[in-house]
Design brief:
There is one protein chain. The chain has 102 residues and is of the alpha+beta class. The chain has a domain at 12-62. 23% of the residues lie in helices and 32% in strands. It contains 1 helix and 6 strands. It has a two-stranded antiparallel ribbon with strand order 1-2. Strand 5 and strand 6 (74-76) form a beta hairpin. The termini are far apart. 3% of the residues are buried.
């Protein structure tokens, strides 16, 4: 039996550069099938660990609808979904700790 060829989606590699508060240059690369999501702002908001700027992520890489408001604070379109996405991993951790204590 002949299988039809699997269509491969084109992947894009996007490079971002940012300045830390200490003035150091950080870099972050994203592989994506949908670059539009990461190109929708003139400056893409990046989150990084100040102790280790090589650990960075574009805000648009996060699941859900996280956005920056006018004051630069992270906000979500539907807070209930954000609470649910935090609840499930938290429940998993509690169950695992309960099994370890047992």
């Amino acid at each position: 039996m002949h299988k039809p060829p699997v269509e491969k989606k084109k992947r894009f590699l996007l490079h971002f550069e940012f300045q830390t508060e200490e003035g150091k240059t950080g870099r972050h690369c994203v592989k994506t099938h949908d670059p539009k999501r990461l190109e929708d702002e003139s400056l893409e908001p990046l989150l990084y660990d100040p102790a280790n700027p090589s650990f960075a992520m574009a805000l648009d890489e996060l699941p859900g609808t996280a956005r920056l408001d006018a004051d630069g604070n992270v906000s979500v379109k539907d807070p209930a979904l954000g609470a649910l996405s935090a609840f499930l991993p938290g429940l998993t951790i509690l169950l695992a700790l309960g099994l370890l204590a047992y």
